[in-house]
């Protein structure tokens, strides 16, 4: 498992915690404060009690005319309707007694068989019952609210702490992932640098033998020319002017070859004073012109060689061949160009020769 996946999993866990906790709150609020829940039963008892008290006032008034009697009946009926509910019946035993009292009282009122003061006194029982219901329901409501706020607080703490922990873990994993990424990038960069160094001649900055081989394989199928260049009497040059001057000559020659052969040419130092150039070339005339150009440019550059037996300036021996790039064609081409170069050396140096690949 990678640091990245651990980090992403942490952030996903954070989302899950938040969503889960958010889902918890909504139904809880609904349950506690639902308009159809038993908590609102307190309001019904209050209304019912108010109707009974109003009925009591009618009964206690000095005269009870037709209108007042009707209002009295209506209040008693309304009060009855509001306490005749399952919640009250099941939870409070006084409910049934109160309902019986109201039924009997209504019957006797209809029969005109009750004194108003007595009737008002009879209503005290149901009123007391309703007051008890109100108080009890209020207590229940208070307890429910308390429980809800405690639960909310507990859930809030859980969300806060777990979110914090998960978030910190997510950040930590993310940092580890970034560190790992940077390390990998650094290692890749280093590897590229090493690979480049492994393909490069440190003295002249051009490619080495491995790079030559790699480039030929990479350009498989292309028509190319391989030009081998060797400095004449370089040993004498070194011996006469010193090794550092010899190094300097190698660098100057690399620059000259690059300049003369142009940007399409690739240059390599194969070792000692031997250079190779690979140029796109599909006809001998072009290859001849490349060799001529190198020789002329060197003449013009006029690098002094005080120890040269035949000349006072640096001269080159060149062997060149055209070939088609491929995994196995370089060795044949190299052999042919090298032989051509050897022939130039044998014939007195300071010349070039092109040949056909075997
Ligand atoms: N300054 C310097 N000299 C080098 C380097 N590598 C090889 N050499 C010298 O290059 C010289 C090559 O000598 P040879 O192979 O005899 O070639 P040459 O003297 O040019 O003789 P011909 O090629 O026959 O004309 C040797 O003296 C090596 O010490 C280098 O990196 N720097």
Automatic annotation (TrEMBL):
State one Pfam family annotation.
GGDEF
Report the EC code(s) recorded for this entry. 2.7.7.65
| Keyword Flavoprotein carried by entry | no
Q: Which GO terms describe its cellular component?
A: plasma membrane
**Catalytic activity as recorded in UniProt:** 2 GTP = 3',3'-c-di-GMP + 2 diphosphate
GO MF annotation: an example: diguanylate cyclase activity
Q: Which GO terms describe its biological process?
A: cell adhesion involved in single-species biofilm formation; negative regulation of bacterial-type flagellum-dependent cell motility
The record ties this protein, via PANTHER family, to: DIGUANYLATE CYCLASE DGCM-RELATED (PTHR45138:SF9), REGULATORY COMPONENTS OF SENSORY TRANSDUCTION SYSTEM (PTHR45138)
Q: Where is the GGDEF domain?
A: 222-357
Question: Which keywords accompany this UniProt record?
Answer: Membrane, Transmembrane, Transmembrane helix
Identify this protein by name: diguanylate cyclase
Q: Which residues cross the membrane?
A: 6-26, 158-176
Q: What is the lineage of its organism?
A: Bacteria, Pseudomonadati, Pseudomonadota, Gammaproteobacteria, Oceanospirillales
